[in-house]
Design brief:
The chain is about 0% helix and about 55% strand. It is mainly beta and about 325 residues long. It has 2 domains: about 140 residues, Jelly Rolls, CATH 2.60.120; about 160 residues, Jelly Rolls (Sandwich). Strands 1-10-3-4-5-6 form a 6-stranded antiparallel β-sheet, with no helix packed on it. The protein is globular and about 60 Å long. It starts with a strand and ends in an 18-residue tail after the last strand.
């Protein structure tokens, strides 16, 4: 079975990191798994798996394993009432200096000592019978919380915070599938970590208008130069609409330079958008993705790349479906 989700993390795991995963098991689903590894599955034969968590909803068990040099280590086999996984649930993996602390819906489950160096783990894979994955937030609690404000939002179909500030040369590649009303809209927010009401980049794929809208939602200022309510600025919508088939999965690359947000789809460059807040890049905390007007969004992978070229020239090739 192919992965429900697989992605390269924005930063290798380490002491002070948290992974918060939100999902829901299918109505007749019998299992799912979460794995943290030293490389992408199916690309390397010699990857180590620092944590492999299997939830068997049919037999009401949770099993934990680790794989080192091709050998599996059985860590735990625990009976567990798995009814809650058929509702939206959250699994937290908290990393201290020596072990993973695992909790489900805020309730501690167990801890697992590291057998693979935590700093070598850079890939997350989720597999099994899941109806949806709504959240893969990678955050820090030490040496200081990042992002500083961490909220759950019901309308968001996929949340992805990252534990580091964006820098020029950072590229995020996202695999997406849309369902629902072919006249609806697909939305991406890149918000300010210091004030989540600020949308530093707002992208709206409007299938009803066949336009890709770029904008920002920023505070107005009164006569005393004090920030007031948030308002959208002028829309940018030049360029072609890059969708011919609503239902076909697509791959988006978003690239950050010092002054611009750049986007490509399926190997084709789309646009540059000038950031409207000076020096804001390091305050952007991740992406929130959702659909409106009858659109449901499913994300099956997010991979992070850090290019040597701060202008991200050629970044569009990372969105080519042939690129692995």
């Amino acid at each position: 079975m192919s992965a429900v989700f697989q992605g390269k993390l924005a930063e290798n795991l380490g002491f002070g990191h948290i992974l918060e995963i939100g999902a829901q098991v299918e109505a007749e689903g019998s299992w799912f798994s979460i794995s943290l590894a030293t490389g992408r599955f199916q690309e390397r034969d010699n990857i180590d798996i620092g944590l492999h968590m299997i939830v068997n909803t049919q037999h009401e068990k949770i099993m934990l394993k680790q794989q080192i040099d091709g050998n599996w280590l059985e860590v735990a086999d625990k009976e567990y009432n798995t009814d809650e996984f058929h509702q939206p649930f959250k699994i937290n993996l908290i990393m201290d200096e020596q072990k993973f602390h695992i909790s489900i819906n805020g309730n501690p489950l167990m801890f697992v000592e590291y057998k693979v160096a935590i700093e070598d783990l850079n890939t997350l894979k989720i597999n099994g019978h899941l109806a949806q994955i709504t959240q893969i937030d990678h955050r820090k609690y030490f040496p200081r919380p990042w992002p500083p404000v961490q909220l759950a939002e019901r309308r968001v179909h996929f949340s992805h915070d990252i534990p580091i500030a964006f820098q020029p040369g950072h590229v995020m590649v996202i695999m997406v599938k849309l369902r629902g009303d072919t006249k609806g809209r697909f939305i991406m927010h890149f918000r300010n970590a210091m004030n989540l009401k600020r949308q530093e980049v707002h992208i709206s794929m409007r299938f009803d208008k066949k336009k890709v809208i770029r904008n920002s939602k920023l505070p107005t200022r009164n006569k005393k130069d004090i920030p007031e309510k948030m308002v959208f600025g002028s829309e940018e919508k030049d360029g072609h609409f890059p969708f011919e088939d609503f239902s076909t999965p697509f791959k988006i690359a978003v690239a950050f330079t010092e002054t611009h947000f750049r986007m490509a789809k399926d190997g084709t460059y789309l646009f540059d958008y000038a950031l409207r807040t000076p020096d804001v890049l390091t305050n952007i905390s991740g992406v929130k993705i959702f659909g409106i007007d009858g659109v449901t969004v499913r994300v099956s992978s997010i991979d992070h790349f850090h290019l040597d070229d701060a202008s991200c020239e050629g970044f569009e090739k990372l969105s080519d479906k042939k690129f692995k």
